[in-house]
Design the sequence.
């Protein structure tokens, strides 16, 4: 039986997915204002390892990792380079995907971008 540590209860508990045989993982991905760094790589490797273990155990995994592509750091970096903020973010998303591929990290099932979710974020925060 697979057990996971629950940080809320501070105990190991049996793992029971909400839907038998399926797991949905949402992971906060990088803020893309520069090239990948060890912190980005560490979390990407850790969650890729967890995903692969679940798949090895026979689960169907829907793995979502977002890109924060609108942020003060992105705006400031774009101002310094003279690029549009979303163009700068796209350049670093492309670099992130290339670098994680070299680390043999499987791409997420989906990579939503914060800039494309602004209305939903506002609604969520307002409620």
Sequence:
């Amino acid at each position: 039986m697979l057990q996971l540590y629950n940080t809320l209860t501070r105990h190991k508990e049996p793992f029971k997915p909400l839907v038998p045989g399926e797991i949905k993982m949402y992971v906060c991905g990088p803020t893309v204002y520069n090239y990948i760094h060890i912190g980005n790589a560490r979390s990407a490797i850790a969650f890729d390892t967890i995903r692969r273990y679940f798949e090895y155990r026979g689960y169907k995994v829907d793995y979502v990792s977002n890109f924060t592509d609108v942020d003060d750091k992105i705006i400031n970096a774009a101002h310094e380079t003279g690029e549009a903020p979303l163009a700068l973010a796209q350049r670093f998303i492309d670099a992130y995907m290339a670098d994680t591929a070299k680390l043999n990290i499987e791409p997420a099932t989906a990579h939503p971008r914060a800039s494309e979710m602004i209305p939903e974020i506002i609604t969520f925060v307002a409620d």
